């Protein structure tokens, strides 16, 4: 992979590599911000922003999943990571899966949160409505729709009117220039054939109150990946806002186990090599 990645990125921490893939209409800071420091305590974290998000310019044409997956991997390699786990949230899940099947020599593990392999009929209705909202130009209505559909009911139900107004204003201010491009890509996603080709340890985190990518989608992903684990997180589609500490805990526990397993394999190989040398 010799081409330069056009993606702006956040790089933090030291340790085993961890590449982040954010959700549609999101960004690394927007989707992973509350847990970035926690992830960087144990990993060298590389978080690229998709075209039209963060500091990455909008693409000149429709987004392509293969190209996006290659660009994310290219960004990690540019930042000195030869191998790495990938944590994919929402749309970042299919991006991570495609990266793992296109670059199996680099990807060591997957953590897929609130994700999907292919939009169900219900999710297609939601995507169509989302695009209609974004194209309407009514930023207030779009922000209210996003808050209502994105957040879990218990999270919104506990809010005061002032807190809800703050959430809606945040949703209004955070829509990136590439939002329509990214939601259109959500509607085109189909990585069902990739699932059976995954050969690395995989954790699927099911956000159990999710009305966007529902638990139906999470189970579909977990059931089709050989050996995948499924963990449940009581949250809507916004775990970074609704349950950041629990989300971070699930990710770190899984990745720590993979690092420990890798160390055991290396130690065993060294011991075997030493025994052979003595004999």
Number of strands: 7
Q: How far is it from the N-terminal to the C-terminal residue, by CA? A: 42 Å
Query: Strand order across the biggest sheet?
Result: 1-3-2-4-5-6-7
Helix content: 40-55%
Mean pLDDT: 94
**Which percent band covers the strand fraction?**
5-15%
Low-confidence stretches: 265-273
- Reading the helices and strands in chain order gives EEHEHEHEHHHHHHEHEHH
Number of helices: 12
Query: Any idea what the radius of gyration is?
Result: 19 Å
Give a short synopsis of this structure.
With 279 residues, the protein is α/β, with parallel strands linked by helices. The chain has 12 helices and 7 strands.
Describe the structure.
There is one protein chain. The protein is of the alpha/beta class and 279 residues long. It is built from 12 helices and 7 strands. It is globular. The longest helix is centred in the last third of the chain and has 35 residues. Helix 1 packs across helix 12 and helix 2 packs across helix 3. A 7-stranded mixed sheet has the order 1-3-2-4-5-6-7, sandwiched between helices. Pfam families: Abhydrolase_1. InterPro entries: AB_hydrolase_1, AB_hydrolase_fold, AB_hydrolase_sf. This is AB hydrolase-1 domain-containing protein.
């Amino acid at each position: 992979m010799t081409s330069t990645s056009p993606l702006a990125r956040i790089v933090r921490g030291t340790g085993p590599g961890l590449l982040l893939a954010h959700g549609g209409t999101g960004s690394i800071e927007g989707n992973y911000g509350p847990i970035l420091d926690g992830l960087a305590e144990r990993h060298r974290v590389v978080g690229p922003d998709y075209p039209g998000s963060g500091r990455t310019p909008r693409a000149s044409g429709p987004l392509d999943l293969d190209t996006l997956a290659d660009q994310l991997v290219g960004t990690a390699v540019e930042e000195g990571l030869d191998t790495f786990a990938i944590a994919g949230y929402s749309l970042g899940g299919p991006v991570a899966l495609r990266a793992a099947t296109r670059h199996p020599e680099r990807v060591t593990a997957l953590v897929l949160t609130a994700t999907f392999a292919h939009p169900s009929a219900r999710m297609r209705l939601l995507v169509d409505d989302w695009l209609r909202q974004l194209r309407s130009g009514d930023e207030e209505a779009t922000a209210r729709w996003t808050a209502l559909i994105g957040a879990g009911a218990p999270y919104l139900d506990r809010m005061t009117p002032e807190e809800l107004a703050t959430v809606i204003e945040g949703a209004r201010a955070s829509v990136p220039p590439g939002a329509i491009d990214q939601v259109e890509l959500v509607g085109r996603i189909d990585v069902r054939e990739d699932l059976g080709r995954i050969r690395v340890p995989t954790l699927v985190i099911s956000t159990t109150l999710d009305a966007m990518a529902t638990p139906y989608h999470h189970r579909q992903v977990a059931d089709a990946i050989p050996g995948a684990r499924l963990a449940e997180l009581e949250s809507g589609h916004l775990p970074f806002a609704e349950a950041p500490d629990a989300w971070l805990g699930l990710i770190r526990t899984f990745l720590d186990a993979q690092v420990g397993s890798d160390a055991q394999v290396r130690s065993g190989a060294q011991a075997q090599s030493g025994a052979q040398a003595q004999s």
